[in-house]
Amino acid sequence: MGLISRRGFLAGAATTVLAQEAQRPVFRVKVDMVVLSFTVTDSHNRYINGLKNTDFRILEDGIQQKMATFAEGAKPPMQVLADGGTRPLTAGEPAEAPGNPGIDLHSDAFVGTNVFVLFDTSNFMYRGFVYAEDAIADFVRGLDRADSVAVYTFSRNLSRAASLTRDRGDAIGGLRKSVAGDDTALYNALLLTLRDAAKVPGRKVVIVFSNGPDNASMVAPDDVRAVAEDEGIPIYVISTNEVNKDPISSGVFRRIATRTGGKAYWAKTWQKQVEAFESIREDLGNSYTVTYYPQPNPNEGFRKIAVEIVTDVGKKYRVRSRPGYRPRGGF
What we know:
27% of the residues lie in helices and 26% in strands.
């Protein structure tokens, strides 16, 4: 399916799925801004912290980019100056990227991570439903206080159990009201969740907690994955199935996570689910996030992103990030 036809199909499918959805508030951010999160680890898979913006070079199709902001973990973003130095942004202050004065980018909107938890409440999840709720609740309680969290549940239809909030009680209260049953429309629900997340400025991730099989969606998983790539939203997947029991779903989960800069986990037991959530929480707390406005580039298709560490010692480290995106102007 071609890019234009695919986007048209997704728009039509989303319109159908959203026919009875209320209009959500829109936060306006300059459309060509790229938000890029990545982790740095050593040969023993230990996180490397304390690196500065000057330790990195961001390339897009081989073209070096000028960072607008730089942040580590849940710390407030720093404005990157033209000489490579940084300075803190006060709450509500517009940040001006080099060559982009007057940008509508506010530091208070870029503190912490906006976490969207998408919980499968279909028939497939019935047996482990209560344990799954407990694992998700523990994860929500352990998030950094700067993070916001939304809890969505789905079977055939999506339910916004708790809107994006920093109140952990509200989020867990919404989670506890969820009810198991009906068929599974995972990719429909994921598309709607991505649409909501895309309206929120700053760093965001989607965490899918599911048994795996989808028997009711209108959209294809790779089309939804492409939307996540283009919006810069990492997807983490925790499957309660065994990796070899449903190889099709497992392959899709692995591809979605890898292509968006997230991770996939297979966690059949409650203990493994808790460990998976802990791994995700560590990932969020040890990530770097940069924003930039792309340099002139004639490529209106998929643009490859590369994060390079410029120091000699850094060449031994491994960087994990999403591989690229398609600019909005290319649709």
